[in-house]
User: Fold these one by one.
Assistant:
Number 1:
Amino acid sequence: MMARTVDPFVEALRSWDGEEAVVRFDAGTGTWMFVCVHSTVLGPAAGGTRMKVYADPADALRDGLRLAAAMTSKNAIAGLPLGGGKAVLAVPETPTGERRRELLLRYGELVEALGGTYVTACDMNTSERDMDVVAERTRHVMGRSVEGGGSGSSAPSTAVGVFHGIRAALRHAFGSDALAGRRVVVQGVGAVGSALARLLAEAGAELVVSDVVPDRAQTIARELGAAVVPAEEALAIPCDVLSPCATGGVLNRETIPRLRCRIVAGAANNQLGEPADAERLAERGILYAPDYVVNAGGIIHLASLELLGEDEATRDGRLRGIGDTLAECFRRAEAEGISPGAAAERMVAERLAAGRG
Ligand code: NAI
């Protein structure tokens, strides 16, 4: 008898511990829409909409499922009354103009049909303008443009959160959170990295910046009196703090042995190549601020101002809370002889258990 092959959709869903995944095929654009609701234990599942060309729709579903689970952890540890979700629009090619608008309107109808179980926002390849279009069909959307009734870019808040995180890490590693005299390397000076660089410079840090777009690094360096290093050298520069604010996967088997920093704390998502890299960092005596803890400022900004109706002072208090959460995470890691990443996972599990209880 021939062995039956398992459908990759079925396989992906069977091995997932989330609540539901809603699928729609948009024939007009040939787009697969996946809305992945990982957890609503602490509140509506919140997370962005990623638009991307995938080799296979099953890859898109797997991406959505994984990212939705990560949002559950991020929102829980940020202390937000939100669960975790993510949507993926797997497009055959990036749509523009009227085609894009039509796709986003139909996607907005799908989000609305979920009745608030899932709340969306921007993510890779979706912008504030796109969320304005989605908002024509659903109320369950954050991250619209200011003109469209939204709270504007979340990047400055993400930078503030990372700044508080860096201070908490300094306090833990050196007994003082003073930045004066501390050398910080910021890898990637885009929306978040440049805002963070300004905060660090203001606080008196000795700043080193780097970007694959050399002009970007030069401009911010001139503004702040920072040093510039070529992108390929940034990770190996001796420093107190390395702040990855560019892309994911920068901390891996190859790069970790070359690091010459005491602390890694940055905005980039998915900084570890694989979970074992958290242990590799710990073995080298490098204090790692788990990415989803330290980069929660963006979702805090959106949720606080747009969903919870809070003012900026309350949002700022939540951003400061990132530093407190990290401090707790480092303390527990030390007390329990585990990595900060493992401590963060335990904290997430406790918050979810309390939510269920
Ligand atoms: P961005 O696209 O504005 O900036 C990224 C910068 O990194 C660009 O200037 C790019 O040229 C540079 N870059 C790319 N690869 C590089 C490399 N190998 N070496 C040095 N520079 C490199 O993105 P944004 O919004 O500043 O986000 C930065 C990171 O933070 C991303 O990983 C993003 O997923 C993450 N993040 C952003 C949030 C936000 O609110 N914008 C929230 C949470 C996470």
Number 2:
Amino acid sequence: MRILIISDIHANLAAFESVLADAKGDWDYVWCLGDVVGYGPDPNECCELLKTLPHLCLAGNHDWAALGRLDIRTFNADARKVVLWTQEALKPENIAYLDALPTTFVLGQYTLAHGSPREPVWEYILDPIIAALNFPHFETPYCFVGHTHTPVIYKLMSERGDTDAQAPVYRQPAQLNGHRLIVNPGSVGQPRDSNPDAAYAMLDVETNVLEYRRVPYPIHVTQEKMRRADMPERLIARLEHGW
Ligand code: ZN
């Protein structure tokens, strides 16, 4: 069974559609690691497109913010503005969809969370030290997370907890080799690794072969919609620079 792994779509329909086009339907099921909405101009369209696919989806912090479940004073001013816009824009059926999302999932050899297995909605795994602290918090060999918008693989190197960070190699299927891993596919709708292309991954759960991918998308289409919605210029500009 082949899995299309996506995360942090952030209401960016053009990026989401480009990922689906690039994946060419060569998958059986979608794992979406949360933050379907927030930052971008297409929250309803992204929920609705996701709902047409065979998938499971986890709750992200921006999904919860759009539901009013979080105190958004911890968000920066630009993000806060778009949270309020998203709350206004979301249709009731899409609010109900986001409201029902779970925070973690365990499937065979894989644990899934938006942020981390230890703090599924909130924690950012930004370096090997935080990754090392998270390995005791899941039991499967492999864990997939999103949230940082940066594609990376953390590999547990020893029983003592030594952990390495590895940059992904794109379009090169690689066999997971039994090392315990925390894998981040990157972000579909707002990459932050200085590469503006949408990021995703493909996984064969029978053979444990993982492939990272990037795909360009028409960024200006999303930026135009953001301008029409009077979204913050900083959020519009960051998409073309990938930060
Ligand atoms: Zn996010």
